[in-house]
Amino acid sequence: MNDSINTARSDAGSVMATRQIPSTGEALPVIGLGTWQTFDAGSSESKRAPLEKVLREFVTMAGSVVDASPMYGSAEEVVGALAAKTELDSRLFLATKVWTSGRKKGIQQMEESMRRLRRSRIDLMQVHNLLDAATHLATLRDWKKNGRIRYIGITHYTSSAYGEVEAMMRREPVDFLQINYSAVERQAEARILPLAREQGIAVIANRPFAEGSLLRRLGSRALPSWAHDIDCTSWAQILLKFVVSHPSITCAIPATADVAHLQDNMAAGYGRMPDERLRARIASAIG
Known about the structure:
Elements: E1 6-9, E2 15-20, E3 27-29, E4 33-34, H1 45-60, E5 65-67, H2 75-85, E6 93-98, H3 103-117, E7 122-127, H4 133-145, E8 149-155, H5 162-171, E9 176-180, H6 192-199, E10 202-206, H7 213-218, H8 235-244, E11 251-252, H9 259-266, H10 276-286
Parallel strand pairs: 4-5, 5-6, 6-7, 7-8, 8-9, 9-10, 10-11
Antiparallel strand pairs: 1-2, 2-3
């Protein structure tokens, strides 16, 4: 399904790796943008200004997938406002979530998300942490049929929930799974990622830096000599290339509010990717 990494061109003519969504064949850039904490800027113009630069550079470097949530404070509202201000909305693949109980409350929350994102149709709506998933997925199937959303997904962020996640993947037809995966959080390799491949489910990797702990630990360590073999100039790039080179992963969503960090992250979508031998070497070096 996600065997090969393809390419898409940015405005600057550089090449960004892409992966196809199994259910449709639509290609997505392998590096996306998370918004947890980073885009919770409220109405402050001074706080929004650097985020506008991040969003502009993200698209310039061929990014498109932006992942938000009504649980991320003002992130949805900020993304919607900046996408409209920069006139970049049409170039973004916007994903958000529903996280409440009950059909009526779920519909109210999702409609509010659409208002905040300034969208009449959302690219991907995900049931966050599987909360009342059966109820919301029934609604989302209707919304997809009626054109209000393009794709349906489920999410989680911890391996302790993998049993429930696996059961849901087998029981419910979904287009996307968002799950935690990094060089030190590899539990999904055992059953979740192979099942996603088998079922034709796209996978978005959250926590690619293990909530930043990997970058803090590796920041002062010299890069290994083999980093050049996969065109990496930073640990962030090595960590992200480890994630997106897994054949079941469609996209990783590191979050940042800093343009320089954004550029560093996006660079992981370019150049050579590690093969299985080098993936094992990365995991060994980090572990």
